[in-house]
Each structure stands twice: as C-alpha cells, then as structure tokens.
C-alpha cells in the first residue's frame, strides 16, 4: 500500500513539475494551492472549474463575435479577452494568459486574422490545460483514496 | 571686369545701386565744384559738357614721365606720325601742283625761246665759227645743212612777203600779241601760285581738328574714369605718388603727390598695401590682391588692388601703376555667404547629432520601459511566491522544512527588493515619482529603521540613533521615501561593517549654500508668508559606520547605477548596486543633497540634507507637556522626544515572529529583541544586565508601538513593567530556554529555535487578532467583476482573517457603500457598467458634498430613502485601493488622480493584500 502511495506521490510531483516546466502553470497556481486548507479542501478545484466554465463561455462569446465577418465587434472581443486574461492570471494558467495578451493586442489593432488564430490557440490551450489539471486532480484523489498525503511540490 | 563678375554672382540677390566709393559729404568746397561725378545728359552731349580735369599731375614732371615711359612715348609717336602723315599728304599735293606749274612755265619758256631764235634768224647775224677746227667745220657744215634745210622750207614764204613792210608789221604785232599772252599766263600762274600758297596756309586746320579730337577723347576717358569706382595712380620707385586719379575727396594735391601711402594714411592695411606694392616692384610681375584698410580717414573698406610695374625705355623699373577698386560690399556679402554656408553645415551636423541623441534616448526609454514592465511582470508572481512561503511558515512544519522555507523567504525578499529598486529608479527617472507630504516624527522613523535593521542583524554590531534636541518632534515630508533612504543606507552600512557601530545622527543645520544661492528670494518670501504657521527646517542626517570604508577612487562612481566600489566587493557582499543610486535620486527629488565621506578600514559616513516643513512650535510644546506627565500614557511619548537609541548586540539574538505589525520591507515577520533589560510581550531578556538604562530604547514586538494598532491587545509600555503581566508569563520558561539555546548556537541554531518561538507568538497573534475582531471587525468591500478573482481574493482574505462583501461593478459598489459603512474598498479598475476610476470619483464626490448627486447625474440609481441614512454617516475618507493589471506609472497616476489611495497590482497575492490591510486598517 505504502509503495503505491509513494508511487502515486512521485507521479503527482513529477506531473506537477512538468506542468510548471512546460509553462502551463505559474506561481499564481501555487498561490491558489496555498489557499486551500481544511476549511475549503476543494478550493483549487472549485476555482479551476469556475475558470474553465468562464473560458468556455468567453471563448464562445468571442467566437460568435468573430463570426460576424466584416462586422466584427472588436470591443466586445476585447472586453471578453480582458476578462479571460484576468481569470487566467488569477488561476495561474500561464499559457492561456500569454495567449490572451497576444489576442488582446490583435484585437486592439483590429487584426482579424490574428484574433481568429489566437482564439483557436486559446481554445486548444485551455482544453489541454483542463485535461492536464483533470489528470492532476485524479492523481490527488487517488492519493487521498489510498490514504496518502498530497505532497508539497517545490517548483 | 571684376565688378561684372561680382554682379553676376549676386544676381539672385537684390541688385543694389552701387554707391560712390567715397562718401559724398567730404572734401572741401573747392574740390567739390570740380567734382562732376555724373554729368547731366547722355554721351551725345559730351561735346557740350565741359569736363574739368580731375587729374592732378605734376605738370612739370608729367612730360618727363611721358617722354620716358613706353606708353607715353608710343602714344606721342603715334600722334606725331599721324600728324606727319597728314602734313606729308598736304605737301605731296602741293608739290604736284608746283610740278604742273613748272612744266607749264617750261613750255612757255621753250616757246619763247623758239620765238626768239626765229627772231635771231631773221636778223641774220653772222655766226662766229671757229675756222681752224675741223670738227667745228664739220659742225658748221651740219649746222649749215640744218639751217639750209630749215631755211629752204621757209625760204619760199619769206621770199614771198619778205619785201613788204606790212609783212614785218604784221609780224611784230603777232609777236607782241604772243608776248602779251605769255605775260598774261605768267601772271595767272603767279596768281595760282599765291593761291596755292594760301591753301597751304589753310592746311594747318586739320591739326587743330586733330587736337580737338584728342581733347574729346580725353574728356570721354575722364568721364568714364570719373564714374568708375576705381582709384588709379602712379608711384615712383620709392612708392611716392606722382599721379593719382579719383583720390579721396578730402585730400588735396599737396597731400598726396610726392608722398607714400604710409605718409598719407594711417591704420590697418596701409602697411600691407605698401609691402605688396614693393613686392610687385621687386618681382616685376603685375598682380592683384585684396586688402582691407581701416583708416581714420574712411573707416573700414576693402579694396581689390592691382599693381603693375612700369619700365622706362631702357627697360628699367621706374615705378608702379596702381589701381584699386572698392569691394567692401562684395566682401561683406561673400563673407556673409560663407558664414551662412558654415552655419548651415553646423546646423546640419547638429541636427544629425540631435537625431542620434533622440534615437538613443528613445532606445533608452524603450529599454527602461521594458525593464520596468519586465520587473513588474516578475514582481507579481514573485510576491506570490514569497507570500505563499510566508503563509506556509504559519503552518505546521518540521525543522528542515522551516529552514528551507526561511531561505526561500529571504532570497525571495532579496529579489523583490531588487525589483522594487528597479521600479523605483525608473519611476524617479521618468519623473512620475510623486512625493507626499505627511506629518511624521523623525525620531520614530530613525528608531523604526534601526529596529528593523536590528531585526535582521546577524552580526555583533551596535546600532545607534542620535537625534539632536533641536530636531522638531514632527516635520512634514515624504516619510515613506525618507524611510526608504534610511533603510537603504543603514543596510548598506551594516553590510560593509563587520564589527563596531552603525548609527544614524540627525541634526538641524542652517540652510545649505547650494539652496541659499538659487532660492534666496523665493525662500524669504515663503518665510514671511508662512512665518506664523509653517517654517522650513533643514535636517542633516548622517548614516555612519565603522566598516571597511570606501577607497577614494571609488567615490565618484558610487552613486551610479549598477556600480559598486569594486567587482570584488560585488562578489563578496552581493547587492545590485542600485540602492545608492536610488537614494541619491530620491534625495535630489526632494530638494536635498546626498554626500559621502569615507576612509578605508575606518568607516564611511553618508550624509543627506533635506528640507522639511515644520508645524508651529506650539505643537511641539504641547507634545512636551503631554510627555511630561506620561506616567500612565501610551507608549508614543516615549518616542516623541527621545534623542538616543541604541540596539546592542545580544549574544545570540532572538528572532521572533512579530506578526503583521511591521509594514517594512525587510523580513517584516521578524523582529529582534535586543533591549537588555526589558521584557517584551513576556520575553525575558538577560537579567544580569539589569542596570537602569532608562535612556535605552526597547524593542516591542513587531513595532506595534509605531503602528499603535494593537495597543489594546497588549498595551505594552516598556517603562512600566507591570504591563507585561498581560498573560505572557506562560512563555517565560520557554523563551529563556530558547535564549540559552541560541546563545550556544550559530545562525542555523537560530533558525531552529525560531520554530518554537513562532508557534508561541503565532498563537499569541491569533489571540490578539481575535481580540481586535471582537472590538471592531473591519468591513471590507471588494469591487470586482471577475468571479475567479473574487474567489481567490476572498480565500486570501479568509486566510488573513477577514471577510468581505462583494460588488460586481461600480454601480453595485456605490449602492453598497450607500447602504452600509465600510473601512476599506478594494476596487478593480476595469469593470463593466461603471469602472473603478469613475466609481471612485463618485464616491469622493459624495464624501465632499454629502449627497450622491454626481452619481445620480451619472446614471447610478440610488434609492432616496437611503439618502437620509447616508447623511448620518460620518464623512471620513474611505480608503479605496485600486486593483490594476498594470502598475506602470501612468496607470497608478490615474488611480491617484481619481481619488484612490493606493493600488495593488494584479494578480493579487497574500503578501500584497496583507501589506495593504496593515496600512489601511486601524
């Protein structure tokens, strides 16, 4: 049993580190994790879930706005991307945040092509992140179920 | 010729009337009347114009000159030849005439002879014939024969009328007639001859005409020359004038002739022209030169001078011909043109230089901006890291973890400090640094700075604060910046001092000379105006140490960015090399001066002098009064007039967690307990050192005293020992234990020891916080539209022991503020419906006016029923903290401009939030 926990813990640690190293996450995510305590054990998961919902909504908003060929409301896109940037910055979704910044720039310069391209990337990126984090949470759950402690990961 | 060229060159310019070479209004009256510069009429009337000769010539010598010079003589020869030719012509004509006449006369005489011969023959004169001569005989015979033949032919005629008288009469008559005719002819010839002679006389007329022509030509020449802007002259071998044309009007004949240039003129250029003439004379080659004269006579004029040598018939030099043309205007124009061209070139060069500089500046600005942005980008996550580490340190950890965590926190703090330095520097440099004027107590600041420094002290150093009595209790200035400077200098001093003392000394000085010089007037006015309420005071602050000192050659670059005294030092002591640069810039920004004196291995003293505004001296005495009966006063009076603090090294200094009380940059969670005799929050100090040092300053837990925040919780006035009773006795044994353990241990040991301390103090802190909460729980409003941000912030607040209300936009915020009273508002800047800046403005307007009219005007729906409630509320200024994604200078400026008190850059971290709450929640 202990070996399983140790294995899971090591897996968890490696996976977390890889997420940081690959630039999916930044320190803000660490900060989030610190906020998670006995009182709110699922804090990170809640926030992240909220974030992905937010993503979905905002991205579909932007996609709709960008669909109006020739009559794109860049202001609408801009405000959506601003929201997304704020959210991603708050959860430490580094890659999404970076793409949001680029998208915002494209939007400010009314670069339609750029906007579309960036939006597609954001879509891909947030879905990837979602999958990865899902994996991470699954690992956590497995550890907890095995009776282990979630290890602290120093980045 | 020259003139023509000049005019061509300046054709584009306005063609101006050539002024006379000499001024009009000089010269004697006598000279003037001959001075026909411009005769009226055109050239046709030349004949009528009497052109007075302006030539002044030595008449006796001129012929000599003419005879002896080539030109003169050849001209004369020409004239003579022409005259001779004309005379010859006349003579030839006359001779021909004479010849004709002669021939006629000869003819007449021959006829006469014939007639006479004939007559002789008639008279029949015997001929004397030499008989003896045979040849004569022959001749005779020939003559005979001839005569015979002749006679024979006429013989018949004669024979016919020979006999008659009538015939002879007739013969005589006819002869007479012939004679008469002959005489008559002779007379006529004579007449003709005399007539011819007469015409001969009249032949002299052409000569006169010639003379007249000559005169006219001369007149024309004079006319041309007179109007030509040239001076001509002839000088002999000694350069004495023999002849001059178009001389300066006021000079008379006797002034010039026979004299040299040097004798006539005085001033610049004269000698040069003289030398030039001599040179030409010597070399024998005609040449030109431009010479500028500055004489008393005609001021400054430039002449183009042509000089040619003159030879006599024998080929010897006898002098020079000299011709001068005034070209002052042309020279001036030419010089102007040259100057313009030069200016143009210089301007172009400057322009390109300027462009280069602009380019460089832009590049630098961009680089700086980049650095600032980058620093900011780094700072946000980093503060997250440090904040998290701090939170982590409040949780249960084992020894190893705690040790690691402490290293992490201290290195994080270091990086944060560096980034803050960079941001500060770029702020000061870009001129957006705002100075605030707040009242503060210099003694407190010094004490606080030393206290903080002592807290992180890891060496056996004594920190001293020395404040002169005349330093006011309260002054006005930017306390944050001043504290920053002091902290910086002190930490520098500590860094480079291994043993001995480090201290701060404050004293009032008279106005420094660098200010007095340039602001004397303004300042006196100010004094007069504000004399009653406010005065300026200059305080000199020395931060001294007994450290390694700074070599003299390193002093100049000490205040430069990223520079340290030497590379060795940088390696050995670390640091960014930004601290002093920032200090200097800040001090200068506040109108002061930062200087340094140092001796190697003896120590350094950094001195900065700054002006401060002071309140009325009444305040001071009030404070004094307050201070005098401080027996049961709060801890404040202790600071107000205390002039000396000392923080001695306590062997094995005790680190403790001071809780959230300290708002300083360096490791705010730690405070060192150094006061030898005092109990602080129940910690006992070395009792053996129990000599009554009432002058000593005591360290309280985490500077609560300064913040006066948690007075109620522990109320620890160090002067009165009874206050330690506040339930701290339980720590007693534990603390002394840790003291002893730390005495024996090195730094690592200190870390170990801390864990215990922290636990206890943490517990205590929690207790204190609950107490605070019970008395007055601060109400906080978060205005934020992003759900995730709200969630994160809320969770952080929970960690910090606070709850808060949420508003999703500016309108909701206003509604919330209207209906309930808050102690602090955290306001997102960028929000839908009503953004943070506008909302803040409206809230401020409400605070000023007591009504929401501005908000209602702006379209915010405020229910009137609540208005009454509103009016009852105290209109204290509500602290509003902006939360912005962009902390670059402009954005923060905007926040301040819209009435916000401070700002937190996003993403929000625990550390930032805590600092903010510490500052604004009391």
Automatic annotation (TrEMBL), chain A:
PTM-bearing positions, type Phosphohistidine: 82
Coiled-coil annotated residue ranges, if any: none
Location of the HPt domain: 40-147
Protein's cellular compartments: Cytoplasm, Cytosol; Nucleus
Gene Ontology CC annotations of this record: cytosol; nucleus
GO function terms (MF aspect): histidine phosphotransfer kinase activity; protein histidine kinase binding
Pfam families named among the record's database cross-references: Hpt (PF01627)
PROSITE patterns to which the protein is assigned, alphabetical: HPT (PS50894)
The record's note on its domains: Histidine-containing phosphotransfer domain (HPt) contains an active histidine that mediates the phosphotransfer.
Stated role: Functions as a two-component phosphorelay mediators between cytokinin sensor histidine kinases and response regulators (B-type ARRs). Plays an important role in propagating cytokinin signal transduction.
GO terms (BP aspect): cytokinin-activated signaling pathway; phosphorelay signal transduction system
InterPro entries: AHP1-5/YPD1, Sig_transdc_His_kin_Hpt_dom
Keyword terms of this UniProt record: Acetylation, Cytokinin signaling pathway, Cytoplasm, Kinase, Nucleus, Phosphoprotein, Transferase, Two-component regulatory system
Protein name per its UniProtKB record: Histidine-containing phosphotransfer protein
Record keyword Nucleus present: yes
């Amino acid at each position: 049993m202990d070996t399983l926990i140790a294995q899971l813990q090591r897996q968890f640690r490696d996976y977390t580190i890889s997420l940081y190293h690959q630039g999916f996450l930044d320190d803000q995510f660490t900060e989030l994790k610190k906020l998670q305590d006995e009182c709110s054990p699922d804090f990170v998961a809640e926030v992240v879930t909220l974030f992905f919902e937010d993503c979905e909504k905002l991205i579909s908003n932007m996609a709709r706005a960008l669909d109006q060929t020739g009559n794109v409301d860049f202001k609408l896109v801009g405000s959506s991307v601003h929201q997304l940037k704020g959210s991603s910055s708050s959860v430490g979704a580094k890659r999404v945040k970076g793409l949001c910044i680029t998208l915002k720039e494209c939007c400010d310069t009314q670069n339609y092509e750029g906007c579309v391209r960036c939006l597609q990337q954001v879509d891909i990126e947030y879905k990837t992140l979602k999958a990865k984090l899902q994996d991470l949470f699954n690992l956590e759950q497995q550890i907890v179920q095995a009776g282990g402690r979630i290890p602290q990961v120093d980045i | 010729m020259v003139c023509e060229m000049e005019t061509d060159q300046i054709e584009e310019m306005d063609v101006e009337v050539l002024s006379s070479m000499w001024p009009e209004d000089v010269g004697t009256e006598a000279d003037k009347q001959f001075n026909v510069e411009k005769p009226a009429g055109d050239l046709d009337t030349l004949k009528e114009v009497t052109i007075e000769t302006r030539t002044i010539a030595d008449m006796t010598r001129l012929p000599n000159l003419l005879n002896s010079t080539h030109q003169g003589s050849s001209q004369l020869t020409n004239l003579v030849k022409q005259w001779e030719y004309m005379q010859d012509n006349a003579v030839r004509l006359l001779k021909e005439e004479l010849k004709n006449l002669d021939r006629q006369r000869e003819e007449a005489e021959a006829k006469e002879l014939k007639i006479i011969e004939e007559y002789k023959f008639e008279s029949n004169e015997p001929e004397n014939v030499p008989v003896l001569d045979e040849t004569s005989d022959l001749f005779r015979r020939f003559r005979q024969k001839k005569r015979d033949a002749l006679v024979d032919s006429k013989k018949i005629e004669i024979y016919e009328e020979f006999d008659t008288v009538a015939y002879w009469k007739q013969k005589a008559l006819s002869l007479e007639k012939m004679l008469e005719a002959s005489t008559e002819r002779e007379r006529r010839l004579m007449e003709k001859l005399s007539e011819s002679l007469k015409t001969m006389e009249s032949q002299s007329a052409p000569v006169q005409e010639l003379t007249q022509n000559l005169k006219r030509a001369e007149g024309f020449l004079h006319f041309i020359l007179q109007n030509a802007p040239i001076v001509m002259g002839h000088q002999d071998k000694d350069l004495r004038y023999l002849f001059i044309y178009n001389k300066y009007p006021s000079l008379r004949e006797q002034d010039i002739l026979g004299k040299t240039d040097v004798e006539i003129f005085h001033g610049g250029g004269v000698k040069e022209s003289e030398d030039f003439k001599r040179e030409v004379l010597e070399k024998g080659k005609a040449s030109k030169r431009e010479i500028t004269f500055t004489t008393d006579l005609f001021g400054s004029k430039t002449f183009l001078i042509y000089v040619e040598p003159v030879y006599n018939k024998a080929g010897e030099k006898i002098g020079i011909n000299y011709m001068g043309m005034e070209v002052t205007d042309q020279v001036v124009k030419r010089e102007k043109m040259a100057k313009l061209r030069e200016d143009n070139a210089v301007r172009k060069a400057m322009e390109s230089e300027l462009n280069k500089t602009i380019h460089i500046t832009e590049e630098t600005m961009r680089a700086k901006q980049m650095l600032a942005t980058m620093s900011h980008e780094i700072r946000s996550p980093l503060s997250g890291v440090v904040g998290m580490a701090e939170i982590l340190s409040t949780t249960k950890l084992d020894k190893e973890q705690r040790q690691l965590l402490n290293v992490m926190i201290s290195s994080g703090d270091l990086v944060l400090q560096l980034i803050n330095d960079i941001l500060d520097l770029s702020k000061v440099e870009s001129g957006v640094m705002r100075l605030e004027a707040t009242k503060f107590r210099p003694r407190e600041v010094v004490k606080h700075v030393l206290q903080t420094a002592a807290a992180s002290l890891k060496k056996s150093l004594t920190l001293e604060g020395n404040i002169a009595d005349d330093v006011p209790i309260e002054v006005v200035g930017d306390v944050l910046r001043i504290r920053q400077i002091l902290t910086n200098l002190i930490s520098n001093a500590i860094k480079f001092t291994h043993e001995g003392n480090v201290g701060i000394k404050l004293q009032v000085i008279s106005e420094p000379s660098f200010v007095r010089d340039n602001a004397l007037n303004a300042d006196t006015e100010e004094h007069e105006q504000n004399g009653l309420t406010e005065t300026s005071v200059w305080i000199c602050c020395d931060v001294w140490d007994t450290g390694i000192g700074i070599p003299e050659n390193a002093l100049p670059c000490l205040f430069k960015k990223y520079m340290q005294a030497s590379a060795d030092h940088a390696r050995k002591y670390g640091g960014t090399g930004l601290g002093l640069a920032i200090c200097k810039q800040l001090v200068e920004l506040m109108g002061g001066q930062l200087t340094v004196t140092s001796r190697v291995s003896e120590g350094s003293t950094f001195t900065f002098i700054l002006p401060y505004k002071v309140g009325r001296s009444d305040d001071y005495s009030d404070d004094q009064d307050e201070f005098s009966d401080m027996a049961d006063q709060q801890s404040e009076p202790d600071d107000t007039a205390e002039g000396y603090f000392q923080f001695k090294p306590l062997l094995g200094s005790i680190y403790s967690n001071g809780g959230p009380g300290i708002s300083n940059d360096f490791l705010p969670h730690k405070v060192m307990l150094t006061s030898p005799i005092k109990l602080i929050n129940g910690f006992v100090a070395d009792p053996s050192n129990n000599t009554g040092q009432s002058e000593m300053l005591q360290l309280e837990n985490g500077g609560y005293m300064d913040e006066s925040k948690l007075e109620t919780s522990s109320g620890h006035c160090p002067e009165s020992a009874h206050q330690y009773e506040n339930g701290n006795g339980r720590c007693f044994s534990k603390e002394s234990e840790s003291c002893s353990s730390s005495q024996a241990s090195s730094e690592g040991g200190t870390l170990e020891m801390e864990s215990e301390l922290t636990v206890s103090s943490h517990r205590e802190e929690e207790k204190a916080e609950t107490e605070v909460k019970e008395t007055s729980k601060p109400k906080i409003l978060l205005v934020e539209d992003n759900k995730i941000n709200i969630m994160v912030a809320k969770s952080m607040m929970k960690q910090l022991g606070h709850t808060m209300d949420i508003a999703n936009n500016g309108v909701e915020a206003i509604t919330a503020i209207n209906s309930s009273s808050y102690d602090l508002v955290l306001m997102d800047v960028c929000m839908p419906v009503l953004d943070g800046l506008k909302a803040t403005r409206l809230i401020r307007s409400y605070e000023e006016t007591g009504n929401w009219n501005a908000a209602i005007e702006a379209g915010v729906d405020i229910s009137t029923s609540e208005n009454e409630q509103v009016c009852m509320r105290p209109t204290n200024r509500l602290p509003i903290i902006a939360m912005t994604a962009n902390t670059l200078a402009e954005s923060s400026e905007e926040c301040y401009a819209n009435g916000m008190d401070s700002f937190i850059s996003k993403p929000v971290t625990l550390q930032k939030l805590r600092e903010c709450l510490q500052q604004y929640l009391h």
